[in-house]
Design a protein that fits this description.
Layout lengths: L35 E4 L2 E6 L14 H23 L13 E10 L9 E11 L2 E10 L2 E12 L10
Antiparallel strand pairs: 1-2, 2-4, 3-6, 4-5, 5-6
This protein binds ligand 3VV.
Ligand 3VV binds next to helix 1, strand 3 and strand 6.
């Protein structure tokens, strides 16, 4: 299989105050540190879950797959709006902030443990503050899950809730 690596991830440039997400915050020591970047005109997150994230031995727990699709969606929408605003990772501009309004997951096939999972996203703008990301999760070449995430630009009510 083609060896893939996410070189530049949107989570690498989240400001410190929003870099704590359990799924994708680089500052959360206990989290998954999911990283999402461009892959042509699609988006990609690559992640190999640790052994403890099992459902049935040998297979990944579905909630972890939902988390992957969730944070991949947030990161993908942030990448797309950042680019629409004329910015790319590394130009010093702060990326937009999104929260998840809706998450739907179809679990299509059992997802094996101990292989890198590849989430590939297609981003669609509904309007400037509302985006949709269709994600396919592959284990090697097998399509194991498909998800749809609706993202909304973070309302200011999320700020200063640090406890
Ligand atoms: C818990 C902490 C999270 C912090 C995140 C900080 C962001 C930092 C950014 C990056 C860091 C990385 C963080 C990654 C995080 C991973 C992703 C998550 O897990 S986020 C957490 C789970 N999500 C929530 O906790 C949202 C809770 N819900 C809300 O705050 C509101 O309900 C919200 C913002 C979603 C909608 O706010 P309204 O209801 O006041 O606003 P109205 O104007 O009515 O809706 C805006 C648009 O959203 C649609 N919408 C609302 N709910 C929907 C739904 N369930 N399904 C589809 N669309 C929905 C509406 O139809 C409307 O669309 P129309 O503008 O009319 O076209």
């Amino acid at each position: 299989m083609e060896e893939l690596k996410v070189e530049k991830a949107i989570q690498d440039i989240y400001p410190d105050d929003i870099a704590w997400c359990y799924g994708c915050g680089r500052l959360n020591d206990d989290g998954h540190h999911l990283r999402t970047g461009w892959h042509g005109d699609k988006t990609i997150t690559i992640y190999t879950p640790e052994s403890k994230y099992m459902g049935i031995p040998g297979f990944i727990y579905g909630g972890l797959i939902a988390s992957l699709i969730d944070c991949h969606g947030t990161g993908s929408a942030a990448l797309a709006l950042h680019r629409k605003n004329g910015h790319e990772i590394g130009d010093g501009a702060e990326p937009p902030r999104f929260v998840t309004a809706n998450l739907n997951v179809d679990f299509l096939k059992p997802t094996p443990q101990h292989v890198p999972l590849k989430a590939i996203g297609t981003v669609e703008e509904i309007h400037p503050k509302k985006w949709k990301v269709e994600t396919e999760v592959y284990a090697q070449d097998t399509l194991c899950a498909r998800g749809t995430v609706v993202l909304v630009v973070m309302p200011s009510t999320f700020l200063n809730k640090n406890d």
